[in-house]
Design goal:
This protein has 176 residues and is an alpha+beta fold. It contains five helices and nine strands. The chain is 26% helix and 29% strand.
Length: 176
């Protein structure tokens, strides 16, 4: 039988030891601001946090519930994964972790079925018809389906889709 949910090792270890995921005491701040992924990452660090990394179903569901409760379901929020060069070449890495690990592999395993159809695609078509590299991670809410999805997007969403002005944001995560 297939399990309903998968966990990465750190989360499984925490659940077995404490009964809770590692993020149980984390706090999330949903900020609407037309920044790039890189700028959002730096902004979270300046605030004493980091761009949210969703490493469990519970964390994904808490962020989704917060988007709904704060009435921010029309915003595309950057989260913490990007295709950045490391010593081994390019890999989707968790920000703020030296050397990182390939968080995209975790997202693919953990959140199968929670990607927009055909994603991650690594490229997209801008509103003006240009092909763009999509190398950053975002979470969006689809009202028609009543849930969030992951999507790969450009570092600068507004260069790809200027119509998103005022509907771009990022999620800072704080360990508390």
């Amino acid at each position: 039988a297939e399990p309903e949910k998968y966990y990465i090792m750190d989360e499984m270890s925490s659940i077995l030891k404490t009964g809770e995921t590692t993020s149980v005491n984390h706090r999330y701040e949903l900020i609407v601001d037309d920044l790039t992924w890189s700028e959002a990452c730096a902004a979270c660090e300046e605030k004493g946090g980091y761009l949210a990394t969703l490493t469990s179903w519970e964390e994904f569901e808490r962020v989704q519930a917060q988007m709904i409760s704060e009435e921010k379901t029309s915003v595309t929020f950057f989260v913490g994964a990007a295709d950045r060069e490391d010593t081994f070449g390019y890999a989707w890495l968790e920000p703020g972790v030296d050397g990182g690990y390939n968080i995209l592999a975790n997202y693919n395993a953990l959140f199968e079925g929670y990607w927009l159809e055909g994603e991650p695609s690594y490229t997209g078509i801008a509103e003006d018809g240009r092909e763009v590299k999509e190398d950053c991670m975002a979470i969006i809410y689809r009202s028609s389906e009543g849930r969030c999805y992951l999507n790969d997007v450009a570092d600068d969403i507004l260069s790809e889709a200027p119509s998103f002005a005022g509907r771009v944001g990022y999620i800072c995560e704080y360990d508390e």
